[in-house]
Specification:
The chain is of the alpha/beta class. 34% of the residues lie in helices and 25% in strands.
């Protein structure tokens, strides 16, 4: 670090250490950020990024090292003290109060008051301004936040962080649930914050985003800072090697596979309230991607298909047989599996072990006489942990103790253990680092080569174009276009997503 940078740094963290029992989450991490600087933290799942930021935001206390804010020692006792000191954080895992309204969540802890009385009109005005800055004035302020989509909840989380004019804003995977349009809106907000002199610490697995918005970067690996520098002169291939400790030959590996007979058909499917109309044919060995804006109906289409949401009209055919109104248990029995975008609410039991979560839907090969054989269960769990390179102590560790990306791997591993032949994957790479993404892309290709049929919902267009055989675009609740992936570009997908399907794809 040069002397000029040391004198202008707003925040410094030097040789920070943190352990949880025998697990050393942070060994020696150092980095700094100046006023008006966007500094990205890059690293694999479990590298220590979120732990480091939880120390900064007051959620954890460090075991050692130095933290300074504006040249003075900084050791917040809790998140409220950190926030009042000017540190705001957008967590990767949503931290909203689910039964409060959108408006109440945005101003939670920062409610305007006068003479001890809550100023409701001022609160509404501030909430509306925060959403307007993100171009989401359409989100109803009075709605309970748990009734909004995951993407809209992410917008609310970001809006809350903008309240109070922070000195340092930490963004932990803020675009993981956002579409390209919302991501562009967020980047514009970051640029405005930069001009105001706000320091932004940005954590993302999307290296293209990092390269676009960041001034500087720091790479973490296994709880240590291993590299840092100016992003403008950074080599992305080198950054990836620093991240994973090895060379990744392909970001989007392709496994040869062939399309077979139709295994799933949606015929003008309509749910409550979405989708409005969805028709598609999914074949054995096919990877079919679904793109669209927030609220377009992608998630609702998968939920209705799996039996989680009520179907209003239309039909579902599984292996050429009508099977419209079925429960999730019946879908599982028929060989269909769903990976929810909300892994905490619908995907995982955080207070149960990795082994329990991985084997939950298929105990038959692990039991004898009606009793689960713990040895067999642990062996099966260890197999999937090794295959997906899950970072955990052992199969007995609680899933809630794992990083978000490793939790996502466990949710995917459960479908593999269930031996589902039709996989409905809703944002399967959300919160997963670039090395693990390449691994999951390869796995999806291998599953297709085995004849499994996959619907792949994603807000990240490069991965849809890089992985899928076919891509459909949803617009305002309707599945408007389904074509071979080779006929699409990012531009033509976005045009169809906003209702301009006349744009000719390349």
């Amino acid at each position: 670090m040069d002397a000029a940078r040391l004198t202008t740094a707003r925040l410094r963290m030097c040789n920070v250490r943190k352990s949880f029992g025998a697990t050393r989450a942070l060994k020696n991490v150092s980095f700094e950020v100046g006023p008006g600087e966007v500094h990205v933290l890059i690293g694999e799942n479990g590298a220590g990024k979120s732990t480091l930021m939880k120390i900064l935001s007051g959620a954890h206390q460090p075991d050692g090292g130095v933290v300074e804010l504006e040249g003075k020692p900084f050791a917040p006792a809790n998140p409220l003290q950190a926030r009042r000191s000017g540190i705001a954080m957008i967590y990767q895992e949503l931290t909203l109060a689910p039964h409060l309204s959108v408006e109440e969540n945005i101003l939670l802890g920062e409610e305007p008051a006068r003479f001890g009385w809550l100023n409701r009109s001022r609160r509404r005005e501030l909430a509306r301004q925060a959403l307007a800055e993100l171009h989401h004035e359409n989100i109803p302020l009075e709605a309970p936040v748990n009734r909004r989509s995951i993407a809209e909840q992410q917008i609310v989380e970001i809006a809350r962080a903008l309240i109070g004019e922070p000195k340092v804003l930490i963004m932990d995977e803020p675009t993981s649930s956002l579409t390209q349009v919302d991501t562009e809106n967020l980047f514009a907000v970051i640029e405005r914050l930069r001009r105001r002199g706000v320091s932004v610490i940005y954590i993302s697995h999307f290296l293209e985003e990092c390269q676009r918005i960041a001034d500087r970067f720091t790479v973490l690996r296994d709880g240590e800072s291993v590299a840092s520098g100016d992003m403008a002169s950074a080599n992305l291939v080198q950054i990836i090697q620093w991240m994973v400790g090895r060379e990744i030959s392909e970001i989007y590996p392709r496994t040869p596979h062939h399309l077979g007979e139709p295994v799933l058909e949606l015929r003008v499917l309509a749910g409550r309230p979405k989708p409005q109309s969805a028709s598609l044919t999914l074949r054995a060995g096919e990877i079919l991607g679904l793109a669209g804006l927030v609220g377009a109906g992608r998630t609702e289409t998968l939920r209705a298909c799996f039996g989680l949401d009520r179907i209003r009209s239309g039909a579902v055919y599984v292996r050429s047989k009508e099977a419209t109104h079925r429960t999730p248990a019946q879908r599982l029995e028929s060989g269909m599996g769903l990976l929810s975008e909300n892994r905490k609410a619908e995907g995982l039991m955080l207070n149960r072990s990795v082994a329990d979560n991985l084997t939950l839907t298929r105990y038959a090969p692990l039991s004898r006489g009606g009793f689960i054989q713990s040895g067999r269960q642990r062996q099966a769990a260890q197999h999937w942990m090794d295959l997906l390179e899950v970072r955990a102590r052992d199969p007995g560790q609680l899933v809630g103790e794992l990083s978000g990306g490793n939790q996502q791997k466990i949710a995917l591993g459960r479908l593999l253990h269930h031996e589902a032949a039709i996989l409905l994957l809703d944002e399967p790479t959300r919160g997963i680092d670039v090395g693990s993404k390449a691994q999951i892309y390869k796995l999806i290709g291998q599953l297709a080569a085995q004849g499994k049929a996959i619907i792949f919902v994603s807000s990240y267009l490069p991965e849809l174009l890089g992985v899928c055989d076919t891509i459909g675009v949803m617009c305002r609740g309707a599945l408007s276009e389904v074509r071979p992936a080779i006929e699409w570009t990012e531009h033509s997908i976005m045009a169809a997503a906003i209702g301009q399907p006349s744009v000719t794809p390349a």
